[in-house]
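Example record

The entry below shows one chain as it appears in the dataset: sequence first, then structure tokens.
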Amino acid sequence: MLTMLAASYPAYGLVRSADDSAARLSRTASAVENSWLGTYRGKFEGADGEIEIAPAGSDRLAIRIIVGAPECSGSIDFEAPVPTADRLVLTSTDEMTEGLCTITLARRGRTIRSLEEGCAASHGRLCTFTGKAKRRD
């Protein structure tokens, strides 16, 4: 049985159902998720880097950030809800130092800018997860 919303728009012949609204929200969430998915490569402070973003179940993303240079390397993994906009803030507690690592990802088109704070335990002192990467696939 179709559940009808209270709002009806007779002047335009429009009647919306709760099922229609749920389907529209699902399509919007899927489009946002798909716009983030992929492998991004670029330059990070002190190293080349890569950001991999893949689906991780219903309305969630798996994010891996990897940096590497002869003097420095590191990686960090996150799982986060699908963002509703072009910004995603990721946090993790370092097991050794119990410090908070925060990475902010800002997406514009096919490019992600990454800004980290407090993540040195994951990569060392000579490079960071701060950088800019462009989607390759």
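Notes for this example: Helices lie at 18-36. The chain has one domain: 32-135.
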